[in-house]
TrEMBL record:
ATP-sulfurylase PUA-like domain boundaries: 1-93
Xref: Gene3D superfamilies: Sulfate adenylyltransferase
Transmembrane domains' residue ranges: none
GO BP, sorted A to Z: 3'-phosphoadenosine 5'-phosphosulfate biosynthetic process; sulfate assimilation
Keywords in alphabetical order: ATP-binding, Nucleotide-binding, Transferase
Domain of life: Eukaryota
InterPro entries attached to this UniProt entry: ATP-Sase_PUA-like_dom, PUA-like_sf
Pathway: Sulfur metabolism
Signal peptide span: none
A GO molecular function held by the record: adenylylsulfate kinase activity
Protein name, as recorded: ATP-sulfurylase PUA-like domain-containing protein
Amino acid sequence: MPTIELGPIDVQWLQVLSEGWATPLPGFMRERQYLQTLHFGQLLDLKEEDCVSWRTANSFKDDDTKDPWQLNEPINQSIPIVLPITEEQRKNITI
């Protein structure tokens, strides 16, 4: 089974996520949520699709990608919670 070595800060973020303090995030942010946080300071959706439209905040909701936990309204999220890994590491752990 492939593994990724976590540093002290990564372990602290993992604890925040596992205890539910970052609800509704189910885990580390994907690119889509990361960009929403950087550009809007909010989570607009929790879709897994990485492709985003840069036009408006509403354009994040216009596509047909899967949204496992639909949000009724945007949620303030000004701090990105990400696991910094390389492209090679991502490919090794992708199913």
